[in-house]
Design a protein that fits this description.
Blueprint lengths: L12 E11 L5 E13 L11 E4 L6 H14 L3 E6 L7 H4 L3 E4 L3 E2 L10 H16 L3 H21 L5 H13 L3 H14 L9 E2 L2 H4 L4 E4 L6 H19 L10 E6 L9 H8 L5 E7 L7 H6 L2 E4 L5 H12 L6 H11 L4 E6 L5 E5 L9 H8 L4 E2 H9 L5 H14 L2 E6 L6 E6 L5 H16 L3 E4 L8 E5 L2 E8 L5 H14 L2 E6 L4 H6 L4 E3 H6 L2 H9 L3 H10 L1
Parallel strand pairs: 3-10, 3-11, 4-8, 4-9, 5-8, 6-7, 9-10, 19-20, 20-21
Antiparallel strand pairs: 1-2, 1-13, 11-12, 12-13, 14-16, 15-16, 17-18, 18-19
Helix pairs in contact: 3-4, 3-8, 4-5, 4-6, 5-6, 8-9, 11-12
Length: 558
Amino acid sequence: MKNFGIKKKDDVGTIYRRLTLSRIYSGEQSWKWKRTFYKKFKLSLDNRINSHVVIVGESGSGKSNLARLLIKELHEKGVRILLFDPHNEYVDLAETISADLYDAANSWINIMDIGEMNKEEKSSEVTKMLKKTFRLGDVQSYILYRCIWYTYHIAESNGSIPNIKNLMYSIRAFIRKSSGQELRTLESLERRLALLDNGKNGREVGISKAMEKNAIFLLSGLHTNESQSLYLEGMLKRIYSRMLLMEKSDSGRICIVVDEAEKLGEESIIGKIASEGRKYGIGIMAIAQRAKSIDKDLRNNAAVFVSFCQREPEELNYVANFIAGGNESRRFIEVKKALRCLRCGFGIFSSFEEEPCIIRFRIAKKGRRTIPYILEGALLSPLLEMHICNLLSKEGYSDSEIKSALSRMVEERSVVSHEIESGRLSGRWYLRSGLNSPEHDVCVALVSNVLKECGIRNYVYNKAYGPDIIAFYNGKRIAVEYETGKKNIEKSIAMLRSRMKEYDDVLLIANNKAVDEYVGKGLAAVSISTFFEKNAGEIITLLMSSSMESGLSSLDHQ
């Protein structure tokens, strides 16, 4: 494969020792590690039989560091990177390689959308995926297959594509009509698959767009191994389908990097990509703690295999035998001794073309975390622009970079912004994008914070069929509503009536310009500026002495 590799002028480490065949004093030949006087090591994937790399080793031994070195070099060579990151440890590479970030918790995939097949084939594929991930037995798999087939059948009649929610609905329908052992099996399946039906409202990942440039998929938001495994398998299936539509090429186009590749297990789609990807210019870099846990088609056909320190006996024997390829003249024994004693940052490099050598890999320089990633968690609560600038300046960003990034995020609607013009909370506030207007979401979040500062337990509900905030104080459940004044006042009054039926009382806070309209109707309302200026005692008094019920009653008499 041409043009898929590291520039020859670049080195990723130093050759420390090389395995060579030497003659010992008795006249017999034996394999020994020979010093090389620190010769520079240049790893190129040009002209190798394929462009797949497998990196294994214990935790903290240097796997991620080597992956960083290779990713940066491949990027400089013009190869697109698709990186699956289970612990968000490569997020600083996003700026270095100009990659888009996809948070798997908010960028979902539909594992039941698997291309052009009939419903029997689709049902079989999805069943295999779920069977492997959840380690289902044959009976469980057969019952699950029936539920999946029924889900596809219903969706086909509606002209739609089913998803996990539809499958869960089908399982519950089967539960209502089942009994005995089948009922218990269905209930077990429902509990296990509920991990995948998490109700996320994020955007669906478009694989064609994701493959057009570098992309990093952050998986840490998926808190179970099963969720991460299915996300990986689902994304790789889409990449495989997309790959088959590409023109064939002998030049490197894309490198798929999978950290903790053991999550995929055996018989994964990654094996198919490894077998067929060469002719489409696609290579794979798999990183794992245990070599035996990686799909065998990828493991056995990778042109480059690098192992860092191994001490677990079974894995040590396997990797040593894999690298040595036999024990003639003590070859296996020498490799095993070296693997067990490797220091952090030292690894044994093995390929089809060269004898194994011990490499001391140089330390990859870490880049800055991207502004969207830093603010992803920080903006769960509203932040003043001044505080955001202080936070990001510690990461090395200039004021112009910060303001440009904030403007872009507001334009993309991943972040909302609202300016409060007066009072102690005056200034421009930023918050992660919500369901309502920027003013509404920012003010609701700030009201919640003020209540907490006063010792009032509360949480932001902010749903279409519920209050903005539910507060608890002195045995009372109180609905707190913020009105921007954009809603018709009659609708607001109808909403307040429904809240009074469900809660002990309602506290109405309104936009400074709109508050007079509510007060004019005889409703107990306070302006947002007045609310922010009150101290803890005054807010508690306001909360406990709200006269919303009397105001609504007077409206009834009118």
